[in-house]
Amino acid sequence: MGSAAGISPKSAASQLFRFVLTTSAVSLLLEIESGGGVLNATEKDEAGIAFFETKIRPVLAEKCYECHSAEAGKSKGGLLLDNREAVQSGGDSGPALESGHPEKSLLLKAIAYENPDLEMPPKERLPAHVVEDFRKWIAMGAPDPREADSSLTSNAPQRQRSVNYEAGRQFWSFQPKASPALPSSVKNGSAAIDHLIGLTLQENSLEPAPLTDKRTLLRRAYFDLTGLPPRPEDIRRFLADPSPKAFEKVVDELLRTRAFGERWGRHWLDVVRFAESSGGGRALIMPEAWRFRDYVIEAFANDKPFDELIREHLAGDLIPAKDPTDRRENLIATGFLSLGPTNYELQDKEMLRMEVVDEQLDTLGRAFMGMTIGCARCHDHPFDPIASEDYYGLAAILRNVRVLEYGNVSSWIHVSLPLEDSRELTPEEKTAQAEFESKIAQLREEFSTKTNDQDRKSVGGKIISLAVQKGSPVYESAMGVEERPGPATGYHIAVRGDVHNLGEAVPRSVLRVTLPPGTPLPDMPENQSGRLELANWIASAENPLTSRVVANRIWAHLFGHGLVRSVDNFGAMGDTPTHPELLDWLATHFVEGGWSVKSLVRTIMLSETYQRQSQPAEDAVETDPENFLLSHQNRRRLEAEALRDSMLLLADSLKPIKGGPTLPKELGSEFDYDFSFRGRSVYLPVFRNNLDDLFEVFDFANPNIVAGQRPVSTIPTQALYLMNSDFVFEQAQRAAAQTEPSVESNPDDEARIRQMFERTLGRPPLPGEARLAYSFIQDFPESSEASEPDAWTALQQALFGSIDFRYLD
Amino acid sequence: MIFHGLHPNRSGNVSRRRLLKTSACGFGSLALAGLLGETAHAANPLAPRQPHHPARAKRVIFLWMQGGPSQVDTFTPKERLTRDHDKEVDLFVARTGQVDKVKLYASPWEFRQYGECGQPVSSLFPHMARHVDDLCFLHGMHTEGVAHGPSTLFLHTGATNLIRPSMGAWVLYGLGTENQSLPGFVTINPPATKGGPRNYGNAFLPADFQGTAIGRVGVPAEEANFEHLTNAHLSPGQQEKQFSLLQGLNRQQIDARAAREDSDLESVINSFELAFRMQAEAPEVTDISRESAATQKMYGIGQTPTDSFGRQCLLARRLAESGVRYIQVNYSDNKATPMWDQHSRLKEHETHAAAVDQPISGLLTDLKARGLLEDTIVWWGGEFGRTPYSQGKDGRDHNPLGFTVWVAGGGFRPGLAYGETDEIGQRAVKDKVHMHDLHATILHQLGLNHERLTYRYAGRDFRLTDVHGSVVRDVLV
User: Which residue does chain B place closest to A16, by CA atoms?
Assistant: First the structure.
């Protein structure tokens, strides 16, 4: 582990300890700004001072010092009220008062409870006459003899003003990828993996586990590549193939299937929090979201280079297309930015806009770079070298993009897709389309003339119903984004994340820490949002994060854990890589292979490391119980989809659906959906407030958040589902019927038991299992009802609940 | 060392993992691994746990009045509204975020003072009125969001739009639960809308802590039960056979792998055991026909319009008695304007009051008689209140700026009226209690420090109260 630990886990650890603070303590630390301590002589108006001493100071001391004084050690909102200078200079929201101008003074507005977002003191409104005293005091120039007590202020925690990018770059994940030296005996990628894994095993005196048996390996490969079990004939064929290339052949064959796209596309859909309803209050149906899902499945099935996929996700609409089909894909891909969970009911529309941007940033940060950018929304990132200027520089780019239609209940936008055959429109179609467009233009014009919020919402509602709900009479539409008209601009740092309190202006930017020292920010054109530049920077081979994050996830899908176990967090709060050299090698290999997911999957699967048995040796259990060193494969649990699809497949219930819309057109609400759909799980609608029961209990990815790694829980509701749900019973009944004796085959009970085990578990029964099953069939109590389930159905159902069905060795 | 929650992330013993990773002797140290190689996975995350400080209450029953009952028509009479009924005034309107002209609207109901504390209650709640000396009124509540969706999520999760665990999930995470044959967090007839399952979800907490629904909106209360609890296809005798076959197969499959104990796989066997126990015990707990006729009558069961909510309340008491940690009783529906949401026809508050008044009164009487009120927090309230000005000709709009909730039992000061709204009842102005504060205070009574009840997710320690909230000590005994 010496070399694996070479990326300074100690400094990471000490950093961890230093930041062992609750969030409130952290924010407090960052909130607090010292009040300064320079003595400042002012003319003293005696009457004014007397007024202050009798009317103002007692109120400040009694009602305000608790949160705004050096003595209390608190300066909430960056504001101190215990000395003259601090009052004048104010806090995060600016000066607390403007001498002589009560109406312009924030302090007065706050105590007068003029704005519900800033009511002070927060617990109790001051009596009207006290507010009046403050008004007078400010009008007379706010005389105030108090000076800062430097002995106290020096105790107040200092605000961290800036992020040190240069120091930040020393953290492992921001460093350029290294290329490990490999001995000449290493002839290919798979051998490189085995070599690098072998090194750390050796260092720790561990022997690798033996390669697993062919049956287990085949089942593992089938599930990993397609999410479905091998059929008995697939198993027989593989067992009968003595060629050393037998496994390679299977892998290549499975990589070519659409099922690969369905399986790996779903992995990515977890990361991009795909769903077909908005979540939040109304949980609006997103009837066009399926296009994005199909786009992702196709992308993985066709091995679209991953850097291209990233560019399309972020800026597909800005990329030149070679033909209408290509253009359609590019537009659909930008659905990535718009299909997040959003409470479209939020009435504060400026806040709504920023919430959407925040969600986009959080998602793209973690999805592509393993960075929790969102932490820098209210203050500089407490752990990672991401400053508020980075956050709002990125936010500026996304604020130049239109994703919302404004209304009482707002909406995402739809973009029109070109016709696939790029034919000319008929005259009728042209007229209809022109009419549609002019109606919308008219409404937009009307919208722009409205100043009253209610009127705007009402016109906005009309636009939504026409442009989003009804849509073009000619073109199909997709969820997407478009450039906001007018010149693209930077933005401001929103003080404490409050969009109604804008501070310092910032230019559009990327994460500065990822740029090599001295490199300027990417140039962003004035006539474009900057998304393309953002995408190019994320998808660049030089970005230290992206290729590592993606390669690590691919590894995680094949081993159950990444080399960095916190797959979505490559920051200081995340895990460090167990095999940094291997991670860099994988990332480099991935980029050099043209960002080909399939090629990296293939390389990994052909390594011995992948093919080892999952049963650890005794010494590995003791020294490395969590298998960080990968002396063996990991046993994994089948995900919800694999479980459901396997049952459907064995029951011969799986419908050959290959995409397209799977929501009923007339579906008004996600709660009306009945989940009787019997296609593969990846096509089963994903709603944010209503998931299929099986998904719900078997740890389906939370569609509200980036979920690169699903939780694995073992809870009684899973057992109840397997024992009692209609779905499992129905599939058990149908699967049992598949083994029913027929004219051609008339097996006895033992043979049928064997057949059932082979179909379900991919292996014959163990002797003990066979005995149990046999006596179960013999002793199964008869039911008095006519529609009695037979013993075979009950046996099949038990197999569905058994460990060997639910786990992958 | 690194985790502030009461136990580490259970998808692997992370603290041990970090220790290994950062340990100078790396993986060579047998002693270390031996020391830490305990069966962390097998530990039951729902086992009862020591609170941060001595707890005053053991459990919560939250009676959610969906839609937002009006404070000025129930517990906070405002003379000014009567005096200036229909008068136009300039007020800050939460919905538009600006000052608009609105008309004050008097309450159509009479108020009377009740009990020794003299708390005014309108004629909407004649039954609840008898309990005012047991209730602690918070008249200075305020919250976030103006629409149902955001405010409902805020009420349940402490965030209007972000993805956060629900309060019940936090409580379960902090305290575990006393009865391992029942879920520790149960929500009775929850609505599917306004955030739906997110309001009892675990978000990024482990799934063990999510709420379990009994019934849902639309399912008659007498049919409400846990999902997949009963088998429609096999007879009990058949299922018992099947169960022992299944556990036999599982045992064989574990044994075939290795001789050593495998906690992951053992937990599969345990989950079936627990499910089978639940299947046997839960129906008994949820069967309210075991209660005497007198008790049922007290809850208004068997008569309209109280039957449905009465059943829910009685079920809540049975669950509380059986050791369920957090119980939510939903008076709710799936409509866009849910239940108490009288944007027009304010008089319909009478329908809702009639449906819940006697059942709640029955619940309070029953809990008190059984000594359960001592350590059970009963919390009554909506996601926000309603405006003292009219909407349309006879309705009231949403009002997050000021409203009333009451809390009873669990060490809350009985008979206290805490906080005030302004003279028209719109904005909390005195002894204000933000929803974050209420959350913090309820956690406090359960023995949990809201600043220490944290869970690390995406590199940050999250709390129910985010970076806000303070315990309102003035309302505690």
Answer: B2
Please, which residues 697-726 of chain A have a Cβ atom closer than 8 Å to chain B?
699, 702, 704-705, 711-721, 723-726
A537 to each of A509, A511, A542, A566, A794, how far by Cα in Å?
10, 10, 8, 23, 56
From the list A381, A561, A622, the residue with the least C-alpha distance to B460 is A381
Q: Which residue has the tokens 């590995």?
A: A620
* Cβ pair A801:B230 closer than 8 A: no
What tokens does B106 get?
């008097």
Using a CB-CB cut-off of 8 Å, the residues of chain B touching A794 are: 234, 238, 241-242, 245
ipTM tops the 0.90 cut: no
Peptide bond into A522 cis (omega under 30): no
The DSSP code sequence of B249-266 is: HHHHHHHHH-SS--HHHH
Instruction: For chain B, report the end-to-end CA distance as a whole number of angstroms.
Output: 34
**Nearest-10 Cα torsion for A209, A215, A221, A222:** -160
Which stretches of A593-746 are DSSP H helices?
Answer: 597-605, 608-611, 618-623, 640-650, 693-697, 716-724, 726-737
**DSSP 8-state assignment for residue A226:** H
Structure token digits, residue B401: 């700026």
Q: 10 Å Cβ neighbour count for B170?
A: 32
In chain A, positions 213-272, which contact chain B (CB-CB < 8 Å)?
A: none
- Quick one: which H or E segment has residue A553? helix A546-559
Q: Do A372 and B459 touch (CB under 8 A)?
A: yes
Note the pTM of the prediction, 2 decimals.
0.79
Tally of residues, chain B = 477
- For A3, the closest chain B residue by CA position comes to B26
Q: Are B445 and B412 in contact (CB under 8 A)?
A: yes
Asked if A756 reaches chain B (Cβ–Cβ under 8 Å), the answer is no
**A404: enclosing H helix or E strand:** strand A404-405
Amino acid type, A697? V
pLDDT beneath 50: ranges in chain A? 1-44, 152-161
Which residues sit opposite B408 in a β-bridge? B135, B378
Alpha helices (runs of H) in A37-177, residue ranges in sequence order: 46-51, 57-59, 84-89, 106-111, 128-139, 150-153, 165-168
Q: Are B434 and B468 in contact (CB under 8 A)?
A: yes
CB neighbour class for A421 (10 Å; exposed up to 12, middle 13-18, buried from 19): exposed
Q: How many Å apart are CA A799 and CA A807, to the nearest integer?
A: 12
The two counts, helices (H) then strands (E), for chain B are 11, 19
Question: What distance in Å separates the CA atoms of residue A234 and residue A213, rounded to the nearest whole number?
Answer: 15
- Cis upstream peptide for B305 (omega within 30°): yes
Query: A454-471 b/e with 16+ CB inside 10 Å = b?
Result: eebbebbbbbbeebbeeb
CA distances from B412 to A135, B135, B154, B373, B428 (A): 39, 8, 22, 11, 20
Token couple for B241: 């056979």
Residue matched to tokens 């009435």? A347
| CB distance A646 to A228 below 8 Å | yes
The span from the CA of A34 to the CA of A74, in Å, is 10
Give the nearest partner residue to A690 out of B160, B196, B430, using CB atoms. B196
* pLDDT one-digit tens code per residue, B424-475: 999 999 999 999 999 999 999 999 999 999 998 877 889 999 999 999 999 9
CA dihedral A737, A742, A748, A749 (to 10 degrees): 10
Q: Within a 10 A sphere around the Cβ of B322, how many other Cβ atoms?
A: 17
In this structure, of B118-122, B271-275, B429-433, the range with the lowest mean pLDDT score is B271-275
Percentage of residues in chain B having pLDDT higher than 90: 67
DSSP B402: S
